[in-house]
Amino acid sequence: MSESSTSKDHDLFDAAQAGDWAACCTLGAEKFDFVTEGCEQLEENVRKIIAFTKNRSSLLTKIFLGETGTGKGKFARLLHEMSLPDERFVELNMAGMSSDLVNNELFGHGKGAYTGAEGPKDGLLKLAGKGTVLLDEIGDASLNTQMKLLSAAGNGRKYFPVGSTQELTNEAQVVCATNANLQEAVQLGAIRRDFLSRISGAVYRIPNWSNREETHRIQTVRVLVLKFAKKYRVAEMHIEHEAIQCLFELPIEGNVRGVEDLIERAIFLALDDSKPHIQRKHVLEAYNFGFSFDSESSSVLPAEQESSLRSRPSNLSANAGEPISLKTSEKELIVMTLRHFSLHITHSAKSLGINRGTLYRKMGAYFGTTDPKEIVGL
Please, are residues 288 and 352 in contact by the beta-carbon 8 Å criterion? Predict the structure, then answer.
């Protein structure tokens, strides 16, 4: 469960009230690094949000549908800022949570509801007030939770905390998100048909990265480069056109989130070059580093795709005709990352897109030590 404080910035709200969808797209990219402009489906979603916002339909339940990593959560934040900027935004990811835990977090509980419940606890619906509650992975909701939400998100908007006889009223805007096929879940009996109807007051479909228009994807890449350049205090950083085309041809997993992770790794590689520009070689090295930690020289690309990418002019070799080994590029990236994060293992591992254990194993295999001070030469 996560919670954000109330916002005092009304730019998105004012743009929505004025019906200025272009301004909403621009501000959304600035605030959340979430580009909608140039993608027909995403632009249509923004127009729909504006229409609902102007009609004051915050109590209508909305749902965002799309694969993991497409930006459903960011779009939910965009919707919140366009409709309820002064109110609280809270979210609950239901993935892997038991029904009892979900009900406790969402609806709260009364005193003595279970062993150890010495006092009452407010749930997210009450904590949100007149703000927004995002229920991520709603497809994992149990039938019991679905029954409770039918009432809390229905016309009466009434619910009871767990183990309490005190009826409460839900004043929050309920927004759902899922990557599941809910129609199929209805057929399997995992989702109630009336529940699906209730949460589908307004449906927003988020397309996969590969299905978006190229102009939109180019703009997204450039926004992400600027984001990480600012994060790591790089005065000038841009990505070359050839590098962008290379990125588009790679079978990147994780949709936009996967692209974001790859760009962050590529920036680290580019920082070690004389020119702080992301080149095609940086994209390839970042991709291989992120997906093949147990191989010193093999590429994770399909053979025909690797051949196509490597057949183009490139500066990927240390000496003429001699490609840099994956082991060498990984070692250099580990050293750069450890230096940047002042030898902090957890932060370094997260930036590299791996866990602490994997980073320690790579350090031991490549440098014969797991002491970061020895690795960076301190």
Answer: no
Tokens at 121, concatenated: 């606890």
* 201 vs 63: CA distance, rounded Å: 8
How many other CB atoms are there within 10 angstroms of residue 63's CB atom? 23
- Say if residues 111 and 66 touch (Cβ distance below 8 Å): no
Phi first, then psi: give them for residue 343, nearest 5 degrees: 70, 15
Instruction: Give CA–CA dist 274/265, Å, rounded.
Output: 17
Amino acid residing at 57: S
Please check whether residue 89 is in contact with residue 132, taking contact to mean a CB–CB distance below 8 angstroms.
yes
CA separation, residue 354 to residues 252, 289, 331, 347 (Å):
16, 10, 14, 10
DSSP-derived pairing of the beta strands 158-159 and 168-169: antiparallel
**Cα separation of 220 and 210, whole Å?**
13
Query: Taking the CB of residue 314, how many other CB atoms lie within 10 A of it?
Result: 15
pLDDT digits (tens, 9 = 90+) for 325-356: 455 667 878 888 888 777 888 878 877 778 77
DSSP per-residue letters across 21-32: HHHHHHHHHHHH
Q: Give me the mean pLDDT over the 296-313 stretch.
A: 43
378's CB contacts (< 8 A; 6+ apart) are 343
At 309 the pLDDT is: 42
Map residue 173 onto helix, strand or coil.
strand
Residue 55 scores a pLDDT above 60? yes
128, 88 contact by CB (below 8 A): yes
CB 6 within 8 A of CB 88: yes
Which residue segments constitute the domains of the chain, with CATH numbers given? Answer: 2-207 (3.40.50.300), 210-376 (no CATH)
> Phi then psi for 369, rounded to 5 degrees?
-160, 155
